[in-house]
Design goal:
Strand order of the largest sheet: 2-1-3-4
Shape: globular
CATH topology of the largest domain: Glutathione S-transferase Yfyf (Class Pi), Chain A, domain 2
Number of helices: 8
Mean pLDDT: 96
Structural class: alpha+beta
Helix content: 40-55%
Low-confidence stretches: none
Distance between the termini: 32 Å
CATH class of the largest domain: Mainly Alpha
CATH architecture of the largest domain: Up-down Bundle
Largest sheet: 4 strands, mixed
Length: 208
């Protein structure tokens, strides 16, 4: 099989999720840079890969996908390497629940309302940050309640849930408020420390 191609930017949380899945499977891939915030806009050709102009998009042997969850599932089920999904129905359901919760309630609050607002705005809106932190606290409480015994979110097996959560929390802890809040949830902080030691985490970290 040919080497897959991933389209996106190294600053993107969702591109990093897909990249971590590829890294965990030990799959070589090509990352084609797409900056959706570029002044000149999104290249017209890219809309053939993602009609909504978002990132990431993916291609393998002529098969195209967009949406991070679809990409990550395809990578896990197509390529050899450690399985990143539980084999039992309840485990898969719990994995899906955690990923869905992070998408619906965690990403916006942790990344945009707290980290981006604090880091990128000349005059951050403190009300937006405060609301984001309240939502993030609820997310971390629920994540703590859902975490199974063991090193990873679902227990002894590293899964797509871990790979989904890690880049979101990595962005959140770029700011002091994020680090301080995470420190109040020892189980999740310990889990995050283990994730940061994975080669997949280090190899996908934005360096500049």
């Amino acid at each position: 099989m040919t080497k897959p191609t991933l389209y996106g930017a190294d600053y993107s949380v969702y591109v990093r999720i897909a990249r971590m899945a590829l890294e965990e499977k030990g799959i070589g891939y090509e990352l084609v840079p797409i900056d959706i915030f570029a002044a000149e806009g999104i290249p017209a050709w890219y809309l053939e890969h993602h009609p909504f102009g978002r990132i990431p998009a993916f291609e393998h042997d002529g098969f195209r996908l967009f949406e991070t969850g679809a990409i990550a599932h395809y990578v896990d089920e197509t390529f050899e390497g450690p399985m990143l999904q539980p084999t039992d129905a309840r485990g898969r359901a719990r994995m899906g629940q955690i990923i869905g919760m992070l998408d619906a309630y965690g990403y916006r609050a942790m990344v945009w309302d707290v980290a981006v607002e604090r880091l990128e705005k000349a005059e951050p809106d403190e009300n937006v940050i405060a609301c984001g932190l309240r939502q993030a606290e609820t997310v971390l409480k629920v994540l703590t309640s859902l975490k199974a015994d063991g090193p990873w979110l679902l227990g002894d097996q590293l899964t797509l849930a871990d790979l989904h959560a890690a880049p979101i929390i990595a962005y959140f802890v770029k700011v002091a408020e994020g680090r301080e809040l995470l420190a109040r949830f020892a189980d999740i902080q310990d889990w995050y420390g283990r994730v940061t030691e994975r080669k997949s985490f280090a190899r996908t970290e934005k360096t500049a």
